[in-house]
Amino acid sequence: MERRLFLMGLLGSGIVVACSSRSGTGNVALPSPSAKEQRATIAALKPPKRQRPLIAILADNRGSETTDLMVPYSVLTRSGIADVTVVAPDASPISLMPALTIRPQSTLAAVDKAHPDGADYVIVPAFHHDDRKGPILDWLRRQAASGSTVIGICEGARVLGRAGLLDGKRATTHWYAASSLRRAHPAMEWVRDRRYVADRGVVTTTGVSASIPVSLALVEAIAGAGAAARLAEHLGSDDHDAAHDSNRFGLNAGWVSLVAGNSLAFWGHETIGLPVSNGIDDIALALTADAWSRTYRSKAVTTGEEEFVTTRDGLTLQVDRKAQGRPVDFALPVLGKNHPAQSLDTALSGIAARHGAGTARLVALQLEYLWEGRG
Question: Cα–Cα distance between 249 and 185 in angstroms, integer?
Answer without folding.
Answer: 22
